[in-house]
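Researcher: First entry.
Model:
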Amino acid sequence: MRIDGIPVNDLIGESGGFRRPGTIVYREPGIIWSNIMNTVNFSVPVALHRNVKTSNYDAELDWVTSGGLADYLIFIGYTRRF
C-alpha cells in the first residue's frame, strides 16, 4: 500500500501557491530482481481511494476540478553497487 498526500496549508511560510491538496491511497504490486552488484525494481501503483480537498486557488477558478490525478503510476528503478 502507498499513501501520497499534500496538505492544504504549508507548515512554515505562505500557502498562496497552486496545489491539489488531499490524499490518494494506492495498491502497489511490484517485482524486484537482485544479484550481487545490481538491483532492478518495477511497480505499478493503482489508485484505490482519493480524498481531494479545496485549496485557496480553487476558490478563484471555477473550472478547476479534481482531474489530473493519476489512476496508476509506473515506477522503474535501477541500483548498481560499486
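Researcher: Second entry.
Model:
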Amino acid sequence: MTYDVAIVGGGMVGATLSVALAPLNLRVALIEAIPHNAAAQPSFDERTTALSNGSRRILETIGVWSALHAFATPIAKIHVSDQGRFGFARIDASEQGLAAMGYVLPNRALGSVLWSRLSSAGIKVFCPAEVSSVAANDEVVKIEITEAGAKSAIDAKLIVAADGAQSAVRSAFGVAADVRDYGQTAVITTVLPQRFHNNVAYERFTPSGPLALLPLDGGRCTLVLTLTNEAAQSALAWSDQEFLAEVQRRFGFRLGRFLKVGRRVPYPLSLTQADRTSAPRCAIIGNAAQGLHPVAGMGFNLGLRDAACLAELIAENANDADPGNLRLLREYDAWRSADRRGVIAFTDGLVRLFSNPLSGVTGLRNLGLLAFDLLPPAKSALSRLSTGGGGRVPKLARGVALT
C-alpha cells in the first residue's frame, strides 16, 4: 500500500497534523508505538500544556476545540518576577485586546479528543506499532512496521518525523541534532493554594531555576518547579509538607498558603535542536525538530505551528500528487526558519539570563523587567512572538480552513 503521507509519532503534534490533513482527500497513515490512553504514553500524561491563542485557533479550525474548551482554563494575566529582587512584569489580556493570553489544557484531554477524531477521520492508524526500518528512494519512502509481533511494509511519498526529541526517523535520514543538557529537572505536580488564582499565570525566577504556576479549574494550579538534578532527586523524597514549604519559600504568599500537592513527576530538561527540518522525502516537526526548556511555555506551540505550516503546504500542493517533492520541503524549511530560530533564542536566552548569579547581570535583569512592564509595545511584541506573528502565520492559526 502506498500512502501520500506517513506520520511517525501520534503525540500532540503528530496527532494534530493527522487531523489537519484529514479533509484533504489524501491517503494518510499514523504510526504510534503506545496507545494514547496507556499509562506509559509520554505525550498524554498528567502534565498540562499552555496554549497560545494561535494554537487555540489551530485546534479550533481543525474542529477539535469545541470538545476541548470545557477542559481548558483561560489565562487572563501573566505575572513574571525574580525572587529577592524588585523587578517584575505583568501582561494583561484585556490590555492586549484579547479574551485570554492563552489557555491551560490537560494533556490527557488533548490526547483523548485528538485520537477520538482520528478514528472517524479516515486516517489509517497503526498502533501499537513501531517502525523497524526506513529506506528512501527518489519516488517513495519504504517503511517496515512491526505490529503485534508481525511485520508489514508500506510506502509513503512523504514521511513525517513526529517521534520526539530522540527521533529514530530523523536519525534514519542522517539528520543530526545538537543536545544541550541544562543540568536541570522539572518537577511537575498540582497544588491547591489558599486563595483563588484569578486566572493568573505566574513565572518566578529563583537562583536554582524558574517556578511556574498555571491556573486550573477548581482553584488548583499546575506547578512546574525547575531544580538542579540533585535537588530534584531530594525534592521527590520530601514529604508533602516539606515540599509545600519549599515552594512557599520560593514563591511567597501572593496566593496565601499552599494547602495540598499532588503526585510529583520529574522531567529532565535539555535543548534539542535538529540540524535541519527536512531531508529528502522527510519533514521533521515538533520535538523531533526542537525540544525546548519549558520556561516560557513555547515548545508545543512552536511544534503545532510546524504541523500547521506543513499541512498548509501539502494542501497547496495537492494537485502535484507528490507531497514529498523537494520544492515543498524547501519551502517548509524556509517558512519555519525564522519562527524556530526566534523562539529557540528567546527561550534559551531566558534560561541563561535568569540563571546568571552575577550582581551586575541581576541588576540589569530587574531593570529590564520593570522596563518591560512599562512598555506596551514590548508586551505586544512578546504576544506576537508567542503566536508566531513575527512572520508568515499559517492559515490554521488565522482561523482559515485548508479547503
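Model: Note on the second entry: Residues 2-179+270-398 form a domain with the FAD/NAD(P)-binding domain fold (CATH 3.50.50.60).
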